[in-house]
Amino acid sequence: MSLKVYINGKLFAKDDAKVSVYDHGLLYGDGVFEGIRSYGGKVFRLREHLVRLWDSAKAIRLAIPMSMADMEKAVYDTLAANELKDAYIRLVVTRGAGTLGLDPNRTSDPQVIIITDKIALYPQEYYENGLSIVTASTIRNHPAALNARIKSLNYLNNIMAKIEGLHAGCEEALMLNHKGEVAECTGDNIFLVRKGDVLTPPTDAGILEGVTREVVIELARTDGLAVREIPLTRHDVYVADECFLTGTAAEVIPVVKVDDRTIGDGKPGAVTRELMRRFREFTRA
């Protein structure tokens, strides 16, 4: 069955799903998006993702041409049309077609796009044995230039860091902020475990407030773990007992080596493995 893509209230076959080459989402990365998961036909934390989408749109003065309730229904309708229960969902809202100039006032007809498909970001062996990552020389965008809390279509900053990681033979890369502090990876938030405490950069380090990140923090605290959102340096990463990443597509995945330095004993740690188990249980209940 050919996958169907939702665009502005209509479903199109994947090969027929098109937007104008004059759309400012294509020309300038002028738009916002969200990545979401569904498990067993239930969309995970959909409301939180929609709130973040609306916040991102508001931050760039982009009016989403439908209500949040209608968007929620459209997500479920698109999943049903594609007969998907366990899926990855991509919501995209573009500024719409305009001129070749930057002026957003010359655009019209914002495009609302919903793509539902299957995704497997990392092979199973990485969840069992852990990832190796490197620190990219490309830093996170300065928050005064483009706030990381805006999930915009312009992901070139992350892509450049991703390329560095791939060239180093790694699937992910760690990004520092303008202060030289640990921010996040190209597509995932980062956590450390040190002396039983769970550590992660605060939102003012220039990170995206990940929905999966928030769930993992909730789960860790429910398990009685102390979670501290504090500024971190690469030194903190190197001396950590454990390290793991979180993200909608990645879920919870262990990291066992950073910049060719072994983290802990070089195997996924007990806290990481328990949070992986708890997250799987929580999302598939």
Low-confidence stretches: none
Largest sheet: 9 strands, mixed
First and last CA, distance: 28 Å
Protein structure class: alpha+beta
Helix content class: 25-40%
Inertia-based shape = globular
Q: What is the string of helix and strand elements? A: EEHEEHHEEHEHEEEEHEHEEEH
Radius of gyration: 19 Å
**Whole-number average pLDDT?**
96
Total helical elements: 8
The amount of beta strand, in percent, is 25-35%
Number of strands: 15
Element layout with pairings:
Elements: E1 4-7, E2 10-13, H1 24-28, E3 31-39, E4 42-43, H2 46-59, H3 68-81, E5 87-94, E6 112-117, H4 124-129, E7 131-135, H5 156-167, E8 172-176, E9 182-185, E10 189-194, E11 197-200, H6 211-222, E12 227-229, H7 234-238, E13 242-247, E14 251-258, E15 261-262, H8 270-283
Parallel strand pairs: 7-8, 7-14, 11-12
Antiparallel strand pairs: 1-2, 1-6, 3-4, 3-5, 5-6, 8-9, 10-11, 10-13, 13-14, 14-15
Describe this structure in words.
The chain is α+β, with helices and mostly antiparallel strands. The protein has eight helices and 15 strands. Strands 7, 8, 9, 10, 11, 12, 13, 14 and 15 form a nine-stranded mixed beta sheet that branches. Strands 2-1-6-5-3-4 form a six-stranded antiparallel beta sheet. 29% of the residues lie in helices and 27% in strands. Strand 1 and strand 2 form a beta hairpin.
